[in-house]
Model the fold of this input.
Amino acid sequence: MKQEYIDFYKQISNYAPTNILHIGGHIGQEGEIYKDICSFTFVEPVQKFADIIVSKGYNVINKAVGYRRGQREFYIKNQISSFLMTKVPHGQIKSTVDCVKLCDIQKGYDILIVDVEGSTLEVLESGILNFKVIIAELRDDPAFVGEATKDKIIEYLFNQGYKLVDEFNKDFFFVKQ
Done:
């Protein structure tokens, strides 16, 4: 992991976090950063990725987060997985995953990290946003069919009482005002 990426995520420690909820954990690579800051849990719907997170000794909720509870269609393409189909669908595999709403799992977490490949707005809208900090991966040019733009998500978070304070690459750092 590049040092500037590590430094960006270490900014979380400035907010005295107690517990991080990282939705879209992939293989838990950020765990090395989080373990020195506070407790954390990854949320990862793809079983093989969730198994890797567990093998590292980290907590994982093996579900997707979105508008509806229960079984939902999910697309997997190489190392990317999403509710939304990529704009270039070649090579995608359709699967089914268990889904919960953010409001079902958010209790006890003060930092939210959302890295869900196109479904960021859906995740945010499925919860009650009372986190000290939210970090979300956002794009100017959507890569998925139906993906909300960066500007739309920034506006949504602003209307929920969050202020954009920093960005690194595609990761945007918001704090509750």
